[in-house]
Amino acid sequence: MPAEHAGPDGPGTARGFVHHACLYGSDEEFLAMAVPFVHAGLAAGEPVLAATTPANIELLRAALGDDAHALDTAETAYFGRRPVERVSAFLRYHDRRARPGGRLRMIAEPVWSGRSARQTAEWKRMESGLNLLLAGLPLWMICPYDTRTVPPDVAEAACATHPARLDGERVTPCAAYRDPAHYTASVPPPDLPPPPSAALAPPTADLPAVRRFARARGAAAGLTGERLALAVLAVHEAADHLLTADGAHVTLSAWEEPGALVYDLWRPGPLGAPVPALAGYAPPGAARGGEDGLWLARRLSESLDVRSRDDGTRITLRVAGPGDAEAL
Amino acid sequence: MAHTDGARHRGGTSGTGGTAGTVHVGDLRPGDHACALYASDEERASILRGFLLGGLDAKHKILYLAGADGPRGPGELLEQCRFTGPPEVPAGQLEVLGPAELSPRQGELDPAALLGSLRAAVDRSRSEGYRALRITGDLCTALCDGRDVSRLLRYEALLAAEFGSGEALAVCQCDTRRCDPAALDAFASAHPRSVEVDPLIRTAELVVVRTFDPPGLRIEGVVDTASHRHLRDALQSVASVRGDVRLEMSRVEFLDLAGLRLLMTFARARAARHCTVELAGVPPHLLHVITLIGWDRTPGLRLGAAHAC
Known about the structure:
The complex is a heterodimer. By secondary structure, chain A is an alpha/beta fold.
């Protein structure tokens, strides 16, 4: 496999998104990648962000000398708590820091430990989806994976979701790299039908009826005020997205899980374009976009799973229940 | 927040000016006695247009009680209404009584004498075959003599007693720019309702009313896919307003993302003309959404205080 040296400019000099994984097993290996990456970026006048663990930020600052002052940093757990927020955080950094004709660099190390299976799968899908979502940005992004702590399946996924890996300053293409559409389909969200105890609404294409159902179930689950209004808005936008297809209708169901209220929207039939698993990750832009509403539904939910099958499309969104102490 | 996301009820809104209720001018019925508090000639013209058209449509006799600065005849009144296409007014249906007729002794306006004129007008209207008499006038300023509102209130009390029967309706105009605040309060509280312009949009789900002080819109009810077109039309109608615009949103029950985007697009267009759009009374969850998207940084947009839960 041909390997290239990242060199002083690196492979991201050309326009477009460059996305590398860095699997490291020690502080030294982390720094062997990060220090030259940051130095070269700052030397070229590029904005450089390190969104990683506080420990790695401390290591990196100590190793950078005076350059540490010019480094933008973010504690990674708070730089987008969920994938949909992570994408927004990346785009916001670009919007605030990009200069015409200039490139940006990022070290973006997600938090992997302690994640639920659902969350881990979604972060993997997002890592793959970034190749599409950020494709137009002049951004060189390195995603470090700490092999001392990440689960083996996560380390393995890194080579399927990044076109190349970076070891120190050496770039190697990832043989296991998969096209994002195929990769995300291979890591689907759980496909569970609503439980028998779920509350059901008859099939409808009427958005006010969708909102009435969403409000009634939200209120029954104990949501009130602003949180109830946001849950209704999330369900409305998800339903609106499914109902854009001519002749479509949705069947809604809702049930409670510990800590969450689940809304399930099922659009039967081959109506409308399939909704890709990566739909609704890009925040609304200057012009109206077809996935804006889905983005909002995603953003207002703890999780939003999309599954398109031959016999229909299902969107399942979980909103935090009244016991969510962050919102108390 | 009691968001019901339900249908709009006619006349179910409470208004400005300290009165118990607001009635759109087109909804006035015989027996109504309402005040019209306006702060611009444009707002007065808009109310008067609705008042006249409603009267012509319902075969009411229309009587205008003019003060010293008031119109001197039907022609001048129609001009003040700023019709784009003036309506056909059958001879005799619209009458303007000026100061000379209202105070024959050339003295101060006297409530009892005024009442006498009005009684005669009702009789005349009945004998002429009209279904009802609708009265409006701009006597407020003349009757509010400095801070002494006693004559005005005596007149209003007599009017209320006289015309509660259902044969007449009255709209008492008051230019808030020319009235002392205390007199204005007294004037407003002498009327069970306050009249406002007819809504630009009135559907089962959405009502949008033009407001004038400050200029803007009051949005009530539900904005979703079914009503984006209406909201866009309403925003278009204030696109040429000079200066800043306020959108009053405390009675918005539901607003979807695409509807919110219409407001942002409107703000951006205003910013290009160096004006702002204030969103007032925005429900807290919508403020949250605006901030999530980053639309709180939209050029031209000002976010007023949130609507209390």
